[in-house]
Amino acid sequence: MELFIPSSVVPIGGRSQPWFGRSCKTALRSKQECYQAWAVASVTRDVNTSTLKKKYNFASRSFKRVIAKAKSEHIGRIGEKLVRLPSGTRAFWSLAKAVQGNFLKRRKQATKQAQSWYCFLCKEDRVADMRFCKCCGVYVHEECVGLTAEDKKRYMCPKCEN
Length: 162
Fold this sequence. Notes:
Blueprint: H1 22-43, H2 49-84, H3 90-113, E1 130-132, E2 139-141, H4 142-145, H5 158-161
Antiparallel strand pairs: 1-2
């Protein structure tokens, strides 16, 4: 059984993000720098605007992956702490109650946020079967690249194939 502990559980109070460490800050800085470069290029109508937008999108996806990994590691640490605490202690029951109280509410929100279906070929965000490029990490709709669910080969986008 997978241990699910919402990241809002510990510490209680305020808008603290204890999982937001050095790797998250570095990824955020990279995302912000790419956004700034793209924004300046689009205002000045630079010829490299599309390239900078792609870099920003890649940095944004990378940032999301780093955040997800950091939250997962933080949740794992909370789970380890919960296992180590004696079951009769106040600390154990306080943490266990917080986890139980947030379980259903947080799970529904996470499910809604995880449903992004943006295709980098047709530039649409719609529900369809997706493929992931093993080289550059972009997602595309199977129908946009002429594949079906029966095709089991690992996908590589046209940009990476060349």
